[in-house]
Amino acid sequence: MTTKIRTVRAEEFEDFMRYIERAFGHSVDFFRRFGPHIYKPTPEVCAWGYVVEENGKIVSHVGVYPLEVVTAGVPLRLGGIGGVSTAVEVRGKGYMTQLLYHAIDEMRAQGYPASWLGGDRQRYNTFGWEITKLDYKLQFSRRSLDWHHVAPTPIEEVLPWEATGQIARWMTVPMCHARRPDLETQLHRAELRVWLAEDGYAIAFGQERDHVDLIELVSTSGNEAGLIRAIIEWNHGDRATWQVSPWDEERIARVMPYVSFQTADYAGLYRINDLTSVLQAAIPALERRAAGLRDFAVALGIREHDRTQATTITACDGAVQIEAGRQTEHYVELEPVVAARLVFGGPAIPEAPQLPPGLLALLPVPIYVPPLDHV
Q1: Which sign does the torsion angle of CA 100, 103, 107, 108 carry?
Q2: Is the CATH number 3.40.630.30 carried by domain 3-112?
Q3: Which residues contact 366 (CB under 8 A, 6 or more apart)?
Q4: Every domain of the chain and the residues it spans
Q5: How is domain 135-265 classified at the architecture level of CATH?
Q6: Distant-in-sequence, close-in-space partners of 54: CB < 8 Å, separation ≥ 6
Q7: I need a surface site. Which of 15, 77, 229, 364 has the fewest CB within 10 A?
Q8: Whole-model pTM above 0.90?
Q9: First CA to last CA distance, the chain
Q10: pLDDT band at 105 (very low <50, low <70, confident <90, very high)
Q11: Cα–Cα nearest to 140, from 244, 49, 67
């Protein structure tokens, strides 16, 4: 038996599609309909998929898909992990473990400071992915909007890809957004619906009439409530739910008077691949919190299976400096899951008492992957 790790080849794309459909038990063409921009037979896109080949046959796969997000002013390039699978007949051989560690190495080499995936927390904790801040689901009803006399704004429903120009123009307006180099293809994703207004747009997922599931909404005039009211009426429905990042504070504050119900849930797990790069990208956001903090310096080490990397964080007179390596005596070493919880705002960590209070006041780093960009 011979095995090797390699990338998917464009000429074997159809065979790869049949493999991944069978591995998940999904229908033919499910993955192309779910993610047409990340499953297509071009050399560039196929190279995002890492596979184990056993005796000339693909038997395991992990995709590393490029995501570019800006969250409350913090730009980060993420490796989106998707399509994690192993053929039923070869499970238990450790192929998935090999591929995930290989993907982590590749993300470092390709300059992805952090990573996102959707999946089972316990399974992926082993490899350093962890839940962070919970996303909000804000529910609006006819009654809650009537209470404040919200009038519907004029809208029109169009085929999603027909709205490519308008969405491209407005999608970076919110504080939390993604950059989408292949937006038109992305908008061919199955089950999307798009409405256009004079000053914005809304994207919903699914065909539910009474309860519309909005996954993205933009109103450049701040009239989100009017747009939501219009969509409820368009569908002759009663309610709409809007999934939004907790970092999107201005818009959340604006629509809260009209919310009838709110829940929170995690929408994926995050991993730190390069702590220095993550914190350097966040310096402007960190310095907005640094004013008035007592000066401190601390080195954080992330202990992984094959290495320990350290980053030094210094705050002095409101300025924040981030340096690679251990540049100060105060050193705290963390496991990858604990580091993700600390840096990105997940559940409390037992190491918190060992850290300067100023560091805890600086963190977390804002991070969010919009639902349309889940892989």
Answers
A1: positive
A2: yes
A3: 71, 72, 73, 74, 176, 247, 282, 285
A4: 3-112, 135-265, 270-362
A5: 3-Layer(aba) Sandwich (3.40)
A6: 1, 2, 3, 90, 95
A7: 15
A8: yes
A9: 32
A10: very high
A11: 244
HEC string of 111-170 equals CCCEEEECCCHHHHHCCCCECCCCEEEEEEEHHHHHHCCCCCCCEEEECHHHHHHHHHHH
Q: By C-alpha distance, which of 281, 286, 277 is closest to 318?
A: 286
Q: How is residue 357 written in tokens?
A: 């209070």
By the 8 A CB rule, do 60 and 51 touch? yes
Yes or no: say if 135 and 244 are a contact pair by the CB < 8 Å rule.
Answer: yes
Backbone angles phi, psi at 235, to 5 degrees: -95, 5
pLDDT per residue as tens digits for the range 257-291: 999 999 999 889 999 999 999 999 999 999 999 99
- 3-112 and 135-265, same CATH topology: yes
Q: Which tokens sit at 57?
A: 């046959």
Strand partners for 114: 78, 272
Residue 75 in tokens: 């730009």
Six-digit token pair at 134? 């919970």
**In angstroms, rounded to a whole number, what is the distance separating the alpha carbons of residues 241 and 211?**
7
Residue type, 82: G
| Per-residue pLDDT tens digits for 184-232 | 999 999 999 999 999 999 999 999 888 999 999 999 999 999 999 999 9
Record the tokens describing residue 129, joined without a space. 């992915």
- Specify whether the backbone of 85 is left (phi greater than 0), alpha (psi in -120 to 50) or beta: beta
Q: For 270-362, give the CATH class.
A: alpha beta
Cα(34)–Cα(199) distance, rounded to whole angstroms?
28
How many CA atoms within 13 Å lie on the side-chain side of 130? Answer: 20
pLDDT digits 0-9 by tens, 166-179: 999 999 999 999 99
Between the CA of residue 8 and those of 16, 20, 61, what are the distances in Å?
8, 12, 9
Section 5-16 average pLDDT: 98
Percentage of the chain beyond pLDDT 90 is: 96
pLDDT of residue 305: 85
| DSSP codes joined into one string, 17-44 | HHHHHHHHTPPTTHHHHH-TTTSSSSHH
